[in-house]
Amino acid sequence: MNKDAVQHERGPRNSTLRRQMALYFQDSEPSPPIPSVLDLALPKISSTTSSPPRIEAPSQLPPPPFVYPPTAFPKIPLTPPSILLANTETVCESAARLLFMNVKWAKNVPAFTSLSIKDQMLLIEESWGELFVLGAAQFLPPMELTQLLCAAATRDMHKARSIVPEITNFQETLFKLRNLQLDAHEYACLRAIVLFKTAVDSNSNNSSGDSESSGRSVRDVAAVAALQDHTQLTLSKYISAQHPTQPFRFGKLLLLLPALRAISTDTIEELFFRDTIGHIPIERIICDMYKSNEL
């Protein structure tokens, strides 16, 4: 379909616009099978499991790629930064594909899909912003977010001014992640750690309007906690084996997690998605994408 119709249309009802955005993602040029940087080996556990799964010794950890089935992903154009800075539309298009890729990644993690659909929907809603920041650091070229701020200012100057401090934090967090030079395995583990969270904002509005996640609390806390613990321990063992001269590396990675959470999803929406979705809550679009049989 015509991408301009997605990026600039403001008239249709919310459901129509969400469908247009979904079709835009589906019409994007397919890429080769899923790269190893998105793979994650986590055991399937039933919703009644309360004890953490067995952890393999570092020498037994499978190197990337890991073991769940390959999936086709839209390509994220790694355009040189100078071109990206000159074309905010290209940046936002890459961001949209990154969002789609994150949702598709979660749907292909067996341990995640073994949870109840309510927990899946809630966790993807709660973690999409952190997953986006990790993906931006891993896949997108370095960019000055102030370029996107200028575009936001043309829509709402007051809103643009209010998010300046968060944009600074966003830029610093991206710099710290890139400076640590994380490998594929480390990024995969961080993704799982932020996805499998047991503490959610119970006071948050259910912006998706989806009854599956309206309770705002994880149903199977024990299963989710076991998965997060397993991932943290796996990451710790992996770092000890691969980076023996960096005893504080594991701690540094975990200390970055609050910084990811501190970047509000409102700021991400304003910078990367406002021109595409208007004022439709992006969580609603994410839930629609996640539940789509086409994903």
TrEMBL record:
What Pfam family does this protein match (any one)?
Hormone_recep
Q: Where is the NR LBD domain?
A: 50-293
Q: Which organism is it from?
A: Bemisia tabaci (Sweetpotato whitefly)
Q: Which UniProt keywords apply?
A: Receptor, Transcription, Transcription regulation
Query: Which InterPro entries does the record associate with it?
Result: NHR-like_dom_sf, Nucl_hrmn_rcpt_lig-bd, Nuclear_hormone_rcpt_NR2, Nuclear_hrmn_rcpt
Q: Which domain of life is it from?
A: Eukaryota
Q: Does the keyword Transcription apply?
A: yes
Q: Which PROSITE patterns match?
A: NR_LBD
Which protein are we looking at?
TLL
